[in-house]
Design goal:
This protein has 463 residues and is mainly alpha-helical. The protein has one domain. 84% of the residues lie in helices and 0% in strands. The chain contains 18 helices and no strands.
């Protein structure tokens, strides 16, 4: 039986739409998003070393910022699906104009950031977190708002490369941006090399600088003469209402999904903050560790959307289905190994946070985080189904179903039960994390069903 399985794996590795073909596109994206994971992980480790208040403040402020920008970022990221389908259909001169419509969304993001900036202090003051944490949340959040339009530009221009399967470019640009972020994190948080000690504010400026560098690099590479001749990356700069309308039609559901999912988790984190600083810090650390699993596989999900889009652009739905299953096998194996680590060896993941913190200070936080990682171990396995199958149907254009499902379930299975448990029945931290687990398990089953039974095989986003 074992030898038969090994033989099947070898055959699937070499086959068309098999593991090797998936990894050629996905691996650079996995490394790219893995670099984001490393960046966030080190950022949170540094803040843990700096102060308990800093690590507690970083997650609520970060989630609220992500809630605001994710509508625009999620819509702009859907440019990659347009590029993939146009590329598969050999309609090269439509690619550049598609990217530009995503870039124009950055203007809307900038306007929203300007409107929200002056009222951010009032917002965080109404939440009721401890005063020391609240002041840091406000400062961090205001700095992150400067990066909102840059994030939109980065996601739109990334689509030009990833949508055509040129994912090594994406990888190297993200490596550079991550290196800058980590270096500036260390220098600005702790005040090294003569720079001021800024704490969480330094972490915010490091993030904004990193996003600025990645947006400049992606845009500069995209407008090279050879790309302009073939894909109209400069000649297609004009606003195109027809493409922009279709980008909004298919991309806004994805953006709304991102925004309202992030909002749901932001509300969840704000509720955790009412339990106490240790519960908030432990949840922050646990979510940060979870990015080790989530962000690399986000790269795999991007690859799935791209490959499905290209196959459907070529009018090969059976090929799109096979490539999705290949990606799921790889993702499930990865999540399964990490789940074992989270459940049985949590100390390995928590060790970096404890390096420069007094043991008595960190012990209660560490104890909570060990228990929370068991919840992560359970839901990680189902996250493979959630991420891969939702990415596949989004790559076809089935974005409304994905958005509605994610939004509705986040409230029915996570937010409303958490609120009732916390404020009506005085439930603790583990009740809240139990509802997060139920939510992700539910998503995994529903998106598998949609992939097996849904209309995505006949859908297209291009005209």
């Amino acid at each position: 039986m074992f030898l038969l399985q090994v033989k099947k794996i070898k055959e699937r590795w070499q086959a068309e739409d098999g593991y090797r073909e998936v990894l050629l596109v996905a691996l650079p994206l996995i490394l790219s998003t893995g670099s984001w994971s490393l960046q966030h992980f080190i950022d949170r480790v540094f803040l843990t070393w700096y102060s308990a208040e800093s690590i507690a403040a970083s997650l609520p402020a970060g989630w609220v910022n992500s809630t605001i920008v994710s509508l625009f970022v999620g819509t702009a990221s859907y440019v990659s699906t347009f590029v993939a389908q146009y590329y598969g259909a050999k309609r090269m001169k439509k690619i550049g104009p598609s990217v530009w419509q995503g870039i124009y969304l950055s203007l809307l993001a900038a306007i929203v950031a300007i409107i929200i900036y002056p009222i951010s202090g009032w917002f965080f003051n109404t939440i009721g977190h401890p005063p020391a944490v609240r002041e840091l949340e406000i400062s961090y959040f205001k700095i992150l708002l400067f990066g909102a339009p840059l994030l939109v530009i980065t996601n739109a221009t990334t689509g030009f490369f990833s949508g055509r399967g040129k994912t090594f470019v994406v990888m190297w640009v993200n490596f550079v941006a991550t290196a800058v972020n980590i270096l500036l994190d260390y220098l600005l948080i702790f005040g090294k090399l003569g720079l001021p000690q800024m704490g969480i504010r330094g972490a915010g400026w490091a993030t904004v600088t990193s996003v600025f560098i990645s947006s400049v690099l992606f845009f500069g590479l995209m407008i090279q003469p050879e790309y302009n001749r073939k894909f109209y990356t400069l000649k297609g700069w004009r606003f195109n209402w027809e493409i922009f309308r279709r980008l909004l039609k298919y991309g806004v559901p994805t953006g709304l999904q991102f925004m309202l999912e992030v909002l749901a988790f932001a509300i969840f984190i704000l509720m955790v903050g009412h339990i106490g600083t240790n519960a908030l810090a432990a949840s922050n650390i646990t979510f940060n560790i979870n990015t080790i699993a989530f962000l690399p596989m986000y790269g795999m999900s991007i690859a799935v959307s791209i490959l499905v889009g290209q196959r459907l652009g070529e009018n090969k739905p059976l090929s799109a289905e096979k490539v999705t299953w290949s990606a799921f096998h790889l993702s499930f194996s990865y999540f399964g190994l990490l789940a074992i680590g989270y459940f049985f060896f949590p100390g390995i993941f928590l060790f970096p946070f404890n390096l420069k913190v007094h043991p008595d200070q960190f012990e209660s936080i560490r104890h909570l985080a060990v228990l929370l990682l068991k919840f992560v171990a359970i839901y990680s396995i189902f996250d493979a189904s959630n991420m891969i199958f939702s990415a596949a149907v989004k790559g076809a254009g089935d974005t409304r179903f994905v958005a509605c499902t994610s939004i509705i379930l986040s409230w029915i299975l996570m937010i409303i039960p958490s609120y009732i448990a916390l404020y009506w029945f005085k439930g603790g931290l583990f009740w809240l994390w139990g509802f997060v687990t139920i939510y992700i398990v539910g998503l995994g089953f529903i998106f598998l069903w949609r992939f097996l039974k849904g209309p995505w095989r006949s859908m297209r986003v291009i005209e």
